[in-house]
Specification:
Elements (H helix, E strand, L loop, with lengths): L2 E3 L11 H10 L7 E5 L4 E9 L6 E9 L8 E5 L5 H14 L3 E6 L10 H14 L7 E2 L3 E2 H7 L4 E5 L7 E2 H4 L6 E5 L7 H9 L3 E4 L7 H14 L3
Parallel strand pairs: 1-2, 5-6, 5-11, 6-7, 6-8, 9-11, 9-12, 10-12
Antiparallel strand pairs: 2-3, 3-4
Helix pairs in contact: 2-3, 2-7
């Protein structure tokens, strides 16, 4: 069954114009058909269509159920946007499918992309969440300066993945089951040495994601998958 997103479902039993068009015009649902919805906060709803309008499809709630999170920890990936935005979009899509809870785009010293349209990324997150039937919609933040970000992060396990030939630990060996995880992923030119030093001074753990040198978008997906896998 297809999953529809309705964030204010308790107040308004009407799909958004975009969701209505997909429901009525594309999937051809009509009066009396049952649909599955989520508020993006962990609750799923079974509902029945009462007015199959392609711009404002109305429904009535039949039942609701609070869903347990897919995992018992919070996974946060902070990633410097790639110069080719399609690679960033791909990474975010895959991380959502795997189970990321929070994403923060980072503005680093060597970042080649210094502006970012989060509205486009939010649509990709929503699409991926619905595709994977995820009732919890990941949080996406605006592009954040690196220094501001690392100073604001104090909780959970904090890692910085980089490619310098320094002593690093392997991410999969460092993750403690059940604890929140934050992984920093740098731009194509990697983090600067100062950025790494600053992160280490604040308690971040330097890690490797494997023997191969990974693209930024690949590193984000590997880090996300590793964190989820080690908590299975």
């Amino acid at each position: 069954m297809y999953l529809f997103y309705c964030p204010d479902i308790e107040k308004h039993q009407t799909l958004s114009e975009e969701e209505s068009a997909h429901c009525v015009r594309v999937l051809r649902y009509t009066t009396g058909d049952e649909i599955l919805l989520t508020d993006g906060k962990g609750t799923t709803y079974t509902a029945r269509i009462t007015n199959p309008h392609p711009k404002h499809c109305d429904f009535e709630i039949i039942s609701s159920e609070k869903q347990e999170p897919h995992h018992a920890f919070h996974l946060h990936i902070a990633i410097a946007p790639t110069k080719n935005i399609e690679r960033m979009e791909w990474a975010i899509e895959k991380c959502v499918e795997i189970g990321v809870d929070e994403i923060t785009p980072l503005l680093c010293r060597f970042s080649e992309r210094k502006q970012l349209r989060t509205d486009r990324l939010e649509k990709i997150i929503l699409s991926a969440a619905k595709q994977s039937l995820t009732p919890y919609l990941p949080v996406l933040h605006e592009l954040t300066p690196y220094d501001d970000f690392i100073k604001s992060q104090r909780q959970g396990q904090r890692f910085i993945a980089h490619c310098y030939k320094e002593d690093k630990r392997v991410l999969k060996d460092e993750i403690e089951r059940g604890r929140d995880v934050l992984v920093l992923i740098g731009p194509e030119g990697d983090f600067s040495e100062k950025e790494i030093a600053d992160a280490l001074s604040m308690g971040f753990i330097p890690v490797s994601l494997g023997n191969s040198r990974l693209r930024t978008e690949t590193a984000a997906v590997v880090a996300c998958h590793t964190a989820v896998l080690m908590n299975e």
